[in-house]
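re: ur question from yesterday

yeah so i grabbed the chain u mentioned. its 193 aa long if i counted rite. heres the sequnce exactly as i have it in my notes:
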Amino acid sequence: MTSIAPEQRAAFHAMSESTAEDWKIISRHTAVAGSQLPDRVLAHLRLLDGDGGGFAVDRLTHSLQTATRAERAGRPAEYVLCALIHDIGDTLGPYGHSEVAAAILKPYVHPDLHWMVEKHGQFQGYYFFHHLGMDRNVRDQYAGHPLYDLTAEFCAEYDQVAFDPEYDTKPLEHFEPLVQALMARPRQSLYTD
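ran it thru and got these structure tokens back, copy pasting raw so excuse formatting
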């Protein structure tokens, strides 16, 4: 745990005791943490390196391959970011990885893309749930939703095919400027103007 000098810390022990001065201190620390988010996201993606999960490629390669495929198809930068980050939750929330990724991305991407990432796990199940005795058509609960086709296409064209060890996948370094640029400042958040 990093030691913070007393003058750099808020003085309250309960939020109900806080002052505007306390929140100025906290806001400065929050701004620093926010500016470091792209680096933390990249570091967390690196944790997926070597984590194969039984697949033909490790989870980092899968994420990079999904993003590479989306980029080569001419998808917008925010879409490519979503493709890169879509499975970042595999290590922290293996039974809710889509929701973890969506929570990270929500302040930085268009709401349509947020929905796509949040629901992609259910849509991806079309390709394998039946092998686990599950309903592969669970995605059909969203039939008629305006973002159904967007999410189905993401899974069909970029996600479910991104396990190819022979595919010419771009390295993480290629995507670092994208992560740095798009996650430098949230486009929507309760805490920003």
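noticed a couple things. The chain has one domain: 37-182. also The mean pLDDT is 91.
anyway ttyl
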